[in-house]
């Protein structure tokens, strides 16, 4: 069976066009991994490839910033300059732009950690051998979205008190008149229930779809590598290159969007309702 | 039905991609906390300190340059003021010297004038005195000479002194009157 999760690669290597086997299309099974350790079926502890990538990824991010910022110099070296540029991009480009310098300073570490963590997790998609975006497993975006959710919701309560926070969540506005209860209900659901869900799913779905596309063309390029199919295989391979470049772009954009939304939520929590 | 769909059907709801298995949540949390912890507790404070130092270094440099420029400006102004003052002083001194010179010349001229007039006046007095002396001496001499001449002409009879001099004086007065009238 082509979709056996015990296989090492995402598809079987001995299946080609005209060999009598069907196209091993990528699907949900492409995102399931046989545990490297432990047992997934027994609802017990286990350890699989995305987990390994997540841990290695966090070590890579920390390692990079450690090398750059552990002993920083006033006159920076090349590595420090690159890291500073990334840091400055998140700090000025996202946090200061949305929350403002005074209030935002507190949330810079969260935003920077989120941005580079997500970017790294996304980047695994096009790293040879890893070849899998960790964020295409819903658990990882969900954890991050939950952290952000807890941050801004608790911040809202802390800043506005219970009634103020309720008004903030529901977008309480007297001038709406009779529509107010409806508007408040919608806002309440939109802010407190839909928002964290879409926040996580936006990242997840983008990386999921990107990985599926990459898989599709990769598998097709291999599958069609037989007889006349070679011509189509070449086209598919070119698409792999193009999609890889596109993914490289999407990965950074999704990390940026996730952090930008985080900052917007925090800004909304800090804002005085009117 | 494709093998993949068969597989999916077999796995069922358990593999819903939107329902996360909890071990992955835990690992995800751990992985993120590692990154956040290192960045928030050590690395970002580190770089913030250095960025602050750099900003201060740059601003310090700018401030120093600004201070130097301000000082140069003030020194220049001071020099200009001093130069102006010196020019004024020089002009004032020149003016004073000119005035003094003019007064001096005027004084000397007045003094010279005065002395000249004194000398002229003294000369006049002298001349008058001399003229008077000469005139009286002449009158005497002329009288004597005339008397002698007349005596020689008319003999020794005219020796009476008093008469003689009266006559002579009269004569001379007449002469003078004539001279005055003819003038």
User: What is the strand content of chain B?
Assistant: under 5%
Indicate the low-confidence ranges of chain A by residue numbers.
1-8
* C-alpha termini separation of chain B: 175 Å
The residue ranges of chain B in which pLDDT falls below 50 over 5 or more consecutive positions are 1-13
Mean of the pLDDT scores of chain A? Answer: 87
Oligomer category? heterodimer
Radius of gyration of chain A: 23 Å
Descriptors for this entry?
A: 274 residues; two-stranded antiparallel sheet; 7 helices; 2 strands; 66% helix; disordered N terminus; B: 183 residues; mainly alpha; rod-shaped
Describe the model.
The complex is a heterodimer of chains A (274) and B (183). Chain A is mainly alpha-helical and 274 residues long. Chain A has one domain (38-270). Chain A contains seven helices and two strands; from the N terminus they run ββααααααα. In chain A, a hairpin with a 7-residue loop joins strand 1 and strand 2. In chain A, helix 1 crosses helix 2 (78-98) and helix 4 (108-123) runs antiparallel to helix 7 (229-270). By secondary structure, chain B is mainly α. Chain B has one domain. Chain B is built from three helices and no strands. In chain B, helix 2 packs across helix 3 (161-182). Chains A and B meet through strand 2, helix 1, helix 2, helix 4 and helix 5 of A and helix 1 and helix 2 of B.
């Amino acid at each position: 069976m082509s979709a056996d999760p015990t296989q090492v690669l995402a598809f079987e290597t001995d299946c080609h066009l005209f060999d009598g086997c069907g196209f091993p299309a990528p699907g949900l099974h492409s995102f399931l991994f046989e545990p490297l350790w432990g047992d997934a079926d027994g609802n017990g502890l286990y350890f699989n490839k995305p987990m390994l990538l997540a841990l290695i990824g966090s070590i890579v991010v920390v390692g990079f910033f450690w090398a750059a910022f552990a002993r920083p110099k006033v006159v920076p070296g090349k590595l420090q300059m690159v890291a500073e540029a990334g840091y400055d991009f998140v700090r000025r480009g996202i946090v200061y732009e949305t929350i403002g310098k005074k209030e935002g300073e507190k949330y810079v570490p969260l935003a920077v950690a989120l941005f580079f963590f997500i970017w790294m997790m996304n980047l695994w998609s096009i790293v040879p051998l890893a070849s899998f975006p960790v964020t295409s497993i819903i658990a990882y975006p969900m954890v991050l979205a939950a952290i952000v959710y807890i941050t801004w919701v608790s911040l809202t309560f802390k800043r506005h008190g219970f009634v103020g926070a309720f008004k903030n969540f529901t977008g309480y506005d007297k001038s709406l008149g009779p529509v107010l209860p409806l508007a408040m209900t919608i806002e309440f659901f939109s802010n407190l229930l839909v928002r964290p869900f879409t926040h996580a799913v936006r990242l997840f779905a983008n990386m999921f779809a990107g990985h599926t596309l990459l898989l599709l063309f990769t598998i097709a390029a291999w599958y069609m590598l037989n007889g006349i199919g070679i011509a189509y295989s070449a086209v598919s391979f070119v698409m792999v290159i193009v999609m890889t470049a596109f993914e490289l772009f999407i990965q950074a954009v999704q990390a940026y969007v996730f952090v930008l939304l985080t900052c917007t939520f925090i800004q909304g929590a800090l804002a005085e309702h009117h | 039905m494709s093998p993949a769909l068969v597989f999916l059907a077999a796995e069922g709801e358990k593999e819903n991609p939107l329902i996360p298995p909890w071990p992955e949540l835990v690992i995800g949390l751990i992985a993120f906390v590692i990154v956040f912890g290192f960045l928030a507790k050590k690395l970002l404070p580190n770089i913030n300190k250095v960025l602050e130092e750099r900003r201060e270094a740059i601003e310090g440099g700018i401030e120093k340059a600004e201070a130097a420029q301000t000082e140069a400006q003030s020194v220049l102004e001071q020099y200009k003021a001093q130069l102006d003052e010196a020019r004024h002083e020089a002009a004032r001194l020149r003016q004073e010297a000119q005035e003094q010179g003019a007064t001096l010349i005027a004084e000397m001229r007045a003094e010279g004038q005065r002395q000249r007039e004194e000398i002229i006046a003294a000369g006049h007095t002298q001349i008058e005195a001399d003229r008077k002396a000469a005139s009286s001496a002449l009158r005497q001499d002329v009288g004597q000479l005339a008397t002698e001449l007349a005596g020689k002409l008319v003999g020794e009879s005219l020796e009476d002194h008093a008469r003689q001099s009266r006559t002579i004086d009269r004569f001379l007065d007449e002469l003078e009157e004539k001279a005055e009238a003819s003038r």
